[in-house]
Amino acid sequence: MFPFAKERDYFPILQEQVMLSSCSQSALSRQVEEAIHSYVDTLRYTGMDWMRWMAEVEEAKTQFAKLINAEPEEIAVLSCVSECASSIASAFDFAGKRNQIVTTEMDFPSVGHVWLAQEKKGAQVKFIPSQESVIPLAYYDQFVNEQTLITSIPHVSYYNGFKQDLTKIAEIVHQKGSYLFVDAYQSAGSVAIDVKAMDVDFLATGMQKYMLGIPGIAFLYVKKEVAEKLEPAVTGWFGRTNPFAFDIRCLDYAAGARRFETGTPPMINGYAANAALRLLHEVGVERIEAYLSDLSETAVMYAGERGLTVVSPVEKSQKASNTAIYIPQASKAEALLKERNVIVSARNDVIRIAPHYYNTKAEVKTAIDALAEVAAHLQEA
Ligand SMILES: Cc1ncc(COP(=O)(O)O)c(C=O)c1O
């Protein structure tokens, strides 16, 4: 039985296309579309409505906080995950003995670039390698040491859906005295997150992927006790105690995570985020995660049956929604599938099949059948 028939109707594109690209862009719901229009209406009919715009952004913060079991005061609104990482990096000094940033080869490149840019400030960047589609937990114990200031990891890999155990990693890195930064862009909305139970220090995500929204807005969680110790150099008027004081000589820092905010927040994106977050709360991420775990198993097995090579982890507990299938000409395969109304996402040498709660098992199989045909065609050509 398909459990989300009512919710599936929210997404009109699903009547025309097989959309399995949640690792890149999820389907547009009527609710998000209406929210975007309602921002445009404020411009068209009221001209200017700062109070309402700011209220929408605050509401999005509160809804996101609830999603990850944080306080709204522990959330900053920024524009993208790369900016979240830059903002955190700018608050650290790498001149001392503890000057290492440990990150992983499975992080999204943009996040790695932010850490590499800190070498100019004296940071030493180390990359933990992956081994057979995963990062063994023991590597954290080996690579993180008494010189590590920040450890940066993806919760779920953008490439192959490898899912990490945040609680265990947090325990290891904290024992060594390092902070833990988590990029949750490939997990939020599809994998349950409890920042308190998992004990992460920083967590960043945007709305475009499994969060059912659009790009242009990102949320940065900063643990309360940690935020108060940091003063980011990436800043702006929304990071001040009172943004409306307009005192150019006063660089004070707002309490909590708001000190990490910069300029005017992404307002239209805030409207869209609210509508999307309401959809996620309506069913709860735990139910979505359980359903996607089933779809993921189907995808791995069926791709194998169709003779395709899966490069995602096989162990269920180590894998999220995304099933990565090896195809040397992945971008070409993505374009050919699009011609058949099958929307999937290519990265390097893989096609990523990334369902959300609105997808059915039949759709996953349809996409894999089409991919098998396209792969054979590309091999012959
Ligand atoms: C895991 C992960 N982190 C970060 C990014 C990039 O995020 P942004 O463009 O918001 O900086 C992506 C984009 O695909 C991603 O998958």
Automatic annotation (TrEMBL):
<dbReference type="GO" id="GO:0008483">
    <property type="term" value="F:transaminase activity"/>
</dbReference>
<keyword id="KW-0032">Aminotransferase</keyword>
<dbReference type="InterPro" id="IPR015421">
    <property type="entry name" value="PyrdxlP-dep_Trfase_major"/>
</dbReference>
<keyword id="KW-0808">Transferase</keyword>
<dbReference type="InterPro" id="IPR015424">
    <property type="entry name" value="PyrdxlP-dep_Trfase"/>
</dbReference>
<dbReference type="Pfam" id="PF00266">
    <property type="entry name" value="Aminotran_5"/>
</dbReference>
<protein>
    <submittedName>
        <fullName>Aminotransferase</fullName>
    </submittedName>
</protein>
<dbReference type="InterPro" id="IPR015422">
    <property type="entry name" value="PyrdxlP-dep_Trfase_small"/>
</dbReference>
<feature type="domain" description="Aminotransferase class V">
    <location>
        <begin position="31"/>
        <end position="351"/>
    </location>
</feature>
<dbReference type="InterPro" id="IPR000192">
    <property type="entry name" value="Aminotrans_V_dom"/>
</dbReference>
